[in-house]
Amino acid sequence: MKLYLMRHGEAGFDAPSDFDRSLTERGIMALDRMLSRERAVLDDVSAVLPSPYLRARQTADRVVSHLGVPLLEPNTAFIPDIDTRLALAALESSMLDGLLLVSHQPLIGKLVATLIEGDARRPEPMLPGAVAILELDWPAAGLATLLKKLHV
Known about the structure:
Blueprint: E1 2-7, H1 25-37, E2 47-50, H2 54-67, H3 84-94, E3 99-103, H4 107-117, E4 131-135, E5 145-150
Parallel strand pairs: 1-3, 2-3
Antiparallel strand pairs: 1-4, 4-5
Helix pairs in contact: 1-2
């Protein structure tokens, strides 16, 4: 099955808290360009699961509007500094073929590394808006293959 791991788009720093940081206009435009350009590659996305942080929810909204797929309830297991093991456990309970998770660094890079390499010691570099497309049988350490990485 396919799993899409996406870092939120470019966000500003003018919010009262990290939770409330929103996407920049440039970030929104870059996401929209990438989502239009990669429409065929993202055709297997079946649902979008975001972190509850504003910038992740905004990114998820852009994906949903481009792809016409369901938006799942935001999950606190995918916030930036959560333990990778907790995020993997939450991913297992939410897993469905074609799921696109929108999260943050450092978590998203650690998840990609853990799923492919078996541990998070060398996190995958994930710039804002990047998507790692993985093939796997189940979301567990070392069981995934990186199919492609998309950039804005």
